[in-house]
Amino acid sequence: xxxxxxxxxxxxxxxxxxxxxxxxxxxxxxxxxxxxxxxxxxxxxxxxxxxxxxxxxxxxxxxxxxxxxxxxxxxxxxxxxxxxxxxxxxxxxxxxxxxxxxxxxxxxxxxxxxxxxxxxxxxxxxxxxxxxxxxxxxxxxxxxxxxxxxxxxxxxxxxxxxxxxxxxxxxxxxxxxxxxxxxxxxxxxxxxxxxxxxxxxxxxxxxxxxxxxxxxxxxxxxxxxxxxxxxxxxxxxxxxxxxxxxxxxxxxxxxxxxxxxxxxxxxxxxxxxxxxxxxxxxxxxxxxxxxxxxxxxxxxxxxxxxxxxxxxxxxxxxxxxxxxxxxxxxxxxxxxxxxxxxxxxxxxxxxxxxxxxxxxxxxxxxxxxxxxxxxxxxxxxxxxxx
Length: 386
Known about the structure:
Elements: E1 4-5, E2 12-21, E3 24-31, E4 36-43, E5 49-52, E6 62-72, E7 75-91, E8 97-109, E9 122-125, E10 133-136, H1 141-147, E11 156-158, H2 163-169, E12 176-180, E13 200-205, E14 215-223, E15 231-232, E16 234-239, E17 242-245, E18 257-259, E19 263-266, H3 267-280, H4 282-289, E20 306-310, E21 317-321, H5 323-326, E22 327-328, E23 338-339, E24 341-344, E25 348-350, H6 352-355, E26 358-363, E27 372-378
Parallel strand pairs: 1-8, 4-9, 5-8, 18-25, 19-24
Antiparallel strand pairs: 2-3, 2-13, 3-4, 3-7, 5-9, 6-7, 6-10, 7-8, 10-11, 12-13, 12-26, 14-27, 15-18, 16-17, 16-20, 20-21, 22-23, 26-27
Helix pairs in contact: 3-4
């Protein structure tokens, strides 16, 4: 029996894995008339849907007149790709709801851009508004980009809806999604990382607090202060009981912190955090420089929690990152660990090391469209140790 069509009250719980994108999480969707499966990296820090052109075998792609310029961490200079229209389907399996959007904007990543997302086929951005520039050139952009057919007749900036916005505005799902994850690095602590539950999780489209099997306790809600990214206002970060104030703003950013993958700390604050670790124990500072000093759970004895304090919807909230989350044991095949807090320019990025301790709901339906991000303690898989 084929999957049934989705209704506005449907919830989609899709399995996700960190294996294809080397630590980031991907889900499987089906593209084109032949339902070709593609692994797409799920990214709350962008809004584009882009797929490697050599990974698309469907011949039913409809050309548009749009180009999109994109850049990602492994390719900071970026690339420009043509935008096509095609269908994209997500389903929970046989006899479960299916969401099939017939006309989705997909940017084709040119071969020269390289393999940006590990072995994943592309990326699905889940941020609010389009963060990247679409340009209408007046002629079929794929033919122009790949076969040098035609001469552009104009150069006009346009906005195109993201995939999740398309899902929500067409009434397929409610305006919220959630993540249930465990690791920010692949776990190589078993002989079969492919089936290790720590390397798998779920993304939930259209629901949040309703999925009570994934969390326990009450939610804390972080206020979203700007909708470029999931922008938050951070008050302070604590290393153990040592408080480090976070500036109210950084030049060129709409807020001092965002919720995204990774933990990246503005350089001056990173230096203060390293000093705070050293204040607790000089061994901790040495281990951050030489991660081979951390191999087992026993090596994390005495390490402090890192706590972030954010503006909440009613009052400040505090979220805890335990050492087993900002350290990732068995992060490499040789059994070595990885320290997952990095120095960055700005703003303060709160990502998987934080999210892995929480069932995290991005509820965009409240606060006049800005939304909130809600956190509740996750329920771990049985006998799982991160």
